[in-house]
């Protein structure tokens, strides 16, 4: 996991420097090659997920489903109110 994060942040950091040092034609080529690579990777991941879903036997666990829905709802509400609070505090202006 840390390797994936390291590569991601390295790419984000290097983006500005690489774009300034290559030609426009090379930039366009790299841009579309990476789009094609990302689409291919996404397709392969969804194919593996589909095969894994069909091949494995599943056991229904009601408590797991209910707790997952409950926690997703609770943390979404908490996250929503935290973001709204920070936006309101950031945009609040003091008038004299």
TrEMBL record:
<keyword id="KW-1133">Transmembrane helix</keyword>
<keyword id="KW-0406">Ion transport</keyword>
<dbReference type="InterPro" id="IPR018422">
    <property type="entry name" value="Cation/H_exchanger_CPA1"/>
</dbReference>
<dbReference type="GO" id="GO:0015386">
    <property type="term" value="F:potassium:proton antiporter activity"/>
</dbReference>
<dbReference type="GO" id="GO:0098719">
    <property type="term" value="P:sodium ion import across plasma membrane"/>
</dbReference>
<keyword id="KW-0915">Sodium</keyword>
<keyword id="KW-0813">Transport</keyword>
<protein>
    <recommendedName>
        <fullName>Cation/H+ exchanger transmembrane domain-containing protein</fullName>
    </recommendedName>
</protein>
<keyword id="KW-0472">Membrane</keyword>
<dbReference type="GO" id="GO:0015385">
    <property type="term" value="F:sodium:proton antiporter activity"/>
</dbReference>
<dbReference type="InterPro" id="IPR006153">
    <property type="entry name" value="Cation/H_exchanger_TM"/>
</dbReference>
<dbReference type="Pfam" id="PF00999">
    <property type="entry name" value="Na_H_Exchanger"/>
</dbReference>
<dbReference type="GO" id="GO:0005886">
    <property type="term" value="C:plasma membrane"/>
</dbReference>
<feature type="domain" description="Cation/H+ exchanger transmembrane">
    <location>
        <begin position="1"/>
        <end position="89"/>
    </location>
</feature>
<keyword id="KW-0812">Transmembrane</keyword>
<keyword id="KW-0739">Sodium transport</keyword>
<dbReference type="GO" id="GO:0051453">
    <property type="term" value="P:regulation of intracellular pH"/>
</dbReference>
